[in-house]
Design a protein that fits this description.
With about 60 residues, this protein is an alpha+beta fold. It has a domain of about 40 residues. The chain contains two helices and two strands; from the N terminus they run H-H-E-E. The protein has a two-stranded antiparallel ribbon with strand order 1-2. Strand 1 and strand 2 form a beta hairpin. The longest helix is centred in the middle third of the chain and has 9 residues. The chain is globular, with a radius of gyration of 12 Å.
């Protein structure tokens, strides 16, 4: 697994928990998924989903 570049981490929004990141991802116009950053330890969102499980929208 590749390490997150410091410049990428610095310009992304940090979310304190995966649940908080998922809440933002649900309201986004494009499919997003959260990941834990290996630089700062917080959660960021990415639109890269190739080979990854994408949370279903509207699931309750």
């Amino acid at each position: 697994m590749k390490r997150t570049r410091a410049s990428v981490c610095a310009r992304k929004v940090r979310h304190a928990s995966e649940a908080a990141a998922l809440a933002v991802a649900r309201d986004a116009a494009v499919p997003l998924r959260p990941y834990r950053c290996d630089r700062c330890g917080a959660y960021h969102l990415t639109s890269r989903t190739k080979g990854k499980r994408v949370p279903r929208s509207g699931a309750s």
